[in-house]
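User: Show me a protein chain along with its predicted structure.
Assistant: Here is one chain, sequence first, then structure tokens.
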Amino acid sequence: MNRKFFAGFRGILGAFLGAFLGGLAWAALCVAYVAAVFVPPFELFFLLMAALIGPFTCFGYWIFRGLKKRKFAYISTRICAFLGTTAAAFLYFFPEGGAWCLLFGGFALLFAKGWAQLRLLRYTDPAWYADPRRIAVSWAGGMMYNYRGKKFPLPVETFPPTYSVSNVLEVRGQILRTTPALRKSRTFVVDDVAGVILGPASGSNVLFDRNHEVLAKFAWSMKNANLLAQLLDEHGVHFYTCEEYGYSLGAVQQAED
């Protein structure tokens, strides 16, 4: 019990300090911007700089090794985003601009949820972070990114010896190799693929193995995606819809709140 209490306290302290430092940077940049530019599109700059708070807050929670409870981490980082940013703005604008303190804090709370929270999920719940169900239905592109129309190209009689699925996969016969931009590549064969979860139009199609670990992902809008699908289908790999696999976009959104 004491260990959980202190872990929670560390997380809140780290999140508050992170938000406070992010708020100081945000307020300083806004003040400097107004001083340097005579006719500024200040509203746009103000909103863009609000994106600083989420990463600062989540990084503070992580570096202080906060409690590894997802809901606790999400709630505490959002509250700390408001309090820490408001406290930072207090140093710049109070008492003349007390309303600015609340405005900064309010926008920090609004922007606290985002890509930085996804990194916090990796710390608090790594199993759910790596779950193929979450990855399949999570937003990956526009509404046409993974849209598959009713018309499907006729199957090819012979596969080319080597082809790429956009810039995410390289296929050589039955050997597949991921080609990520910044991470280490991974090589596997078609027989390693236990199934594919078909994501929604804005999600991804996720290849997973027999341990339900993600091997790779692709979208229908990618070049040669149909070739990959045909290759997997001919080797008996089953394609699951989200409903068949027992999950949905709404379930993911509810699980991450």
